[in-house]
Design goal:
Low-confidence stretches of chain B: none
Low-confidence stretches of chain A: none
Strand content of chain A: under 5%
Largest interface: A-B, 56 and 57 residues
Distance between the termini of chain B: 81 Å
Largest sheet of chain A: none
Structural class of chain A: mainly alpha
Radius of gyration of chain A: 25 Å
Mean pLDDT of chain A: 88
Oligomer: heterodimer
Number of helices of chain A: 14
Strand content of chain B: 5-15%
Radius of gyration of chain B: 30 Å
Shape of chain A: globular
Helix content of chain A: over 70%
Largest sheet of chain B: 4 strands, antiparallel
Helix content of chain B: 55-70%
Number of helices of chain B: 12
Shape of chain B: globular
Chain lengths: 352, 399
């Protein structure tokens, strides 16, 4: 078959298989044209790309000048401009560490990973918050994409270890530990995340000793971390349940006690199986970081929303939403594709 | 130091060693240790909280529920007024939350099923369009949709004088959606009673038909009867009730609509956001459920001579439903929890009314947060219990 013939077969079979099929195709095509043409016109063809002020936007399309003028804010919030290199360095460290660990041939990959997990989080906080030789920057000035990444990463740093412990607790032989884990997991999964963020910002300062003065952003991160930990626990449980009982029994027969058997035999296999599900929870976390808007912390979406109040740029809501939405979409879509590929690769290798 | 090393340790009695190594004792010890640690942590938190509250002069207890609320709510379905107590305010929040949840679930299920089935179509264009929708919606925060619909779309609608009319009885503008309401609800309630009676009758009929088929092997057209009984009759009753009732239809007077009931912009935006977002997730559940039905089942049905309609009714749908119910339940509970996103646009739901306004007025954070979370947990547990019961009913019976 030539390419032309294949195309003809495709059109005949997949687009015009029957009369009804043909009608559906025509209707869908009409819908696409009606939707796509104005959207494309607005996004690209009629849009204004260059200029500096609102007055430069004369076309009927999007005014991307607005995004250009506010790009710094969308990325860093109100982080002082001379200090923004610190956020860049922190971001580069994060990306570099992930890239390094993604390389399978890395010598001593486990140790590099452990070292990164120990060293990078405090380093990141030092870079962003300052102190010890760097000019301090208050968290109230943090914002934009930088804050979205910060909250996602640090909430995940709480959620993943806690989730693993909770999942193990839920599978435990000991009834009291099982009960505590189940209650903890079901409680956090049963309440809205917005309510948890409210709760964390109101209750954390109340239940800590006087004068602890816990930071506003830290409260939100802890709240999000606790909720996502409960969801992570369920993802990990799926992996744990996929490990045959024989693995634990074999480890016990070899003389391993509970913790060594769990750490060296069960968890490495379970986490590998649970990785796609855990990635999906991480995607949910990225999407939910935007909720910190409710306690006046402005991440990417919050900054986009806040920027609409600028009297110099009235009526730019569509531009702001389109830009923020596109960034979220790219990040989440890429992660979900990666998670699906991991899953397919595991299935091909005979896991699950 | 003249002694040659420490004196030899007295030997540990065998019984003690055996006791310490006993698995039951160890299990008890670890459980007791974890519980003790949790209790200690709780005591620590509670003591700090009571000290902090004394310091800040905060009251405690639930007396505040009977205090006058004084909070004006823009969207009330009950007969609440600001001079009522805070308990009534809580009830307004619960009703508003449940209202938007139920309406959004219904709409999202409908759209989700259509998109999920469209995604499985052999028509390439249709399935790609459905796929594009799902991929678009699932990878963007719900808050984005809430803000987009509220600030981007509803706020940009024309004013009342240039309203978008829906069938000439409902009007959409930047002040919300004005819908007609029935002045007397007797007819509508009667129609509702007809619906309930028909559903009960259908259940009885299905029960009888199954018994007869098991006994005699003669099939009864349960589905046809069901369409007439649950579909046609109640619709006729509702149409009749609608035509007979006197309606308060909104009309434009001067600069705004008079009459009817106004669904505030916050409600419309939250409803649209929840629906568009959740529909994407339900579509995936529907697709997964249908794909999970083994191909051999459908082929077997065909070779037994079942018509395509029978195959769908008797083979595909029951099996797909079984796969779909657990994830659908968690999706429905997500809608309940996600309705709290209304707090971002000040839709007066449970969280924004109670955890927001009432908390600001009274300052009783612990009590208010406990009540709010308890309500979500109670509704969530009730729904899960019902769904587990239903799930057990439709579960695979291995013979």
């Amino acid at each position: 078959m030539t390419r032309l013939e294949r195309a003809a077969t495709f059109v005949r079979k997949r687009l015009f298989g029957s009369v009804l099929d043909g009608i559906i195709t025509v209707l869908c095509a009409a819908l696409v044209v009606r939707l796509a043409v104005p959207v494309l016109n607005w996004l690209v063809l009629d849009a204004t790309w260059t200029g500096t002020t609102r007055a430069d936007c004369t076309g009927s399309g999007a005014c991307w000048v607005f995004i250009r003028a506010r790009f710094g804010q969308f990325m860093y919030g109100l982080y002082p401009t001379p200090e923004r290199w610190r956020a860049d360095v922190a971001g580069l460290l994060l990306v570099g560490a992930i890239a390094l660990l993604a390389w399978r041939g890395l010598p001593g990959r486990r140790f590099v990973g452990a070292a990164a997990a120990l060293v990078l989080p405090p380093l990141g906080i030092w870079l962003l918050a300052g102190g010890l030789g760097l000019a301090p920057v208050e968290t109230r000035d943090w914002g934009g994409l930088m804050l979205t990444v910060f909250i996602s990463v640090y909430a995940a740093l709480i959620a993943v270890p806690l989730g693993v412990v909770l999942a193990l607790g839920r599978q435990s032989r000991l009834p009291a530990i099982r009960l505590i884990s189940v209650v903890f997991i079901e409680f956090w999964r049963g309440v809205p995340i917005i309510a948890v963020i409210f709760l964390a910002s109101l209750l954390l300062p109340l239940i800590l000793p006087q004068g602890t003065g816990i930071d506003r952003l830290a409260r939100a991160v802890i709240g999000l971390g606790l909720v996502i930990a409960a969801y992570m626990a369920e993802a990990v449980r799926g992996g744990l349940q996929a490990i045959p009982q024989g693995q634990t029994e074999a480890a016990t027969a070899l003389g391993l006690r509970y913790w060594p058997a769990t750490a060296f035999i069960v968890l490495p296999q379970a986490l590998r199986i649970a990785l796609p599900a855990m990635t999906n929870e991480f995607i949910a976390l990225i999407k939910n970081t935007s909720l910190v808007l409710i306690v006046s912390i402005f991440d990417l979406l919050g900054i986009a929303q806040a920027s609409l109040a600028d009297p110099a740029w009235v009526g730019m809501s569509m531009e702001a939403y389109a830009f923020a939405g596109a960034l979220y979409w790219i990040a989440c879509f890429a992660l979900s594709r990666w998670s699906r590929r991991t899953e397919a690769r595991q299935a091909a290798r005979g896991f699950v | 130091m003249t002694a040659g090393g420490p004196p030899p340790a007295p030997p540990i009695p065998r019984e003690l060693r055996a006791f310490v190594r006993d698995k039951r004792v160890r299990d008890l010890f670890w459980q007791a240790a974890v519980i003790a640690a949790l209790v200690a942590l709780t005591v620590f938190f509670v003591r700090n909280a009571s000290q902090n509250m004394v310091q800040a002069g905060l009251a405690s207890g639930f007396d505040f529920l009977w205090r006058t609320s004084g909070i004006d709510v823009p969207f009330v379905l009950t007969n609440y007024t600001p001079s009522d107590n805070i308990l009534s305010l809580l009830w307004v929040g619960v009703v508003n939350t449940l209202l938007v949840t139920v309406v959004a679930i219904a709409a999202a299920t409908l759209i989700g099923f259509v998109i999920g089935i469209a995604r499985l179509s052999t028509n390439w264009l249709l399935s790609s369009l459905a796929g594009a929708y799902v991929e678009f919606v699932r990878n963007i925060p719900l808050l984005f949709f809430v803000l987009f619909w509220y600030f981007g779309v509803i706020a940009a609608l024309p004013g009342p004088r240039q309203s978008i009319g829906l069938f000439g009885v409902a009007f959409l503008n930047n002040r919300g959606l004005t819908i007609p309401v029935a002045k007397d609800t007797a007819g509508l309630l009667a129609a509702l009673a007809v619906l309930v009676a028909c559903i009960a009758l259908q259940a009885l009929l299905a029960f009888w038909a199954r018994r007869r088929q098991e006994r005699t092997g003669r099939a009864f057209p349960v589905w046809t009867a069901g369409i007439v009984l649950v579909g046609v009759l109640p619709i006729m009753a509702f149409v009749a009730a609608t035509l007979m009732a006197e309606w308060d239809v909104p009309v434009l007077r001067g600069f705004n609509y008079r009459g009817g009931f106004v669904l505030i912009p916050e409600f419309v935006a939250l409803f649209l956001a929840l629906t568009t977002y959740t529909a994407g997730f339900i579509a995936e559940i529907v697709r997964g459920g249908i794909l999970a039905v083994a191909r051999g089942q459908i082929e077997a049905a065909k070779s037994l001579g079942l018509t395509p309609g029978q195959t769908l009714r008797l083979v595909t749908i029951p099996q797909a439903l079984r796969v779909m119910i657990p994830p659908l339940t968690s999706q429905y509970l997500n809608v309940l929890k996600n309705s709290s996103f209304g707090a971002a646009i000040a839709y007066p739901d449970l969280v924004s009314l109670f955890m927001g306004s009432a908390l600001n007025n009274t300052g009783q954070a612990i009590e208010i947060i406990a009540i709010t979370l308890a309500i979500y947990l109670a509704v969530g547990l009730a729904v899960s219990a019902f769904m587990n019961w239903y799930n057990a009913r439709v579960a695979l019976v291995l013979r």
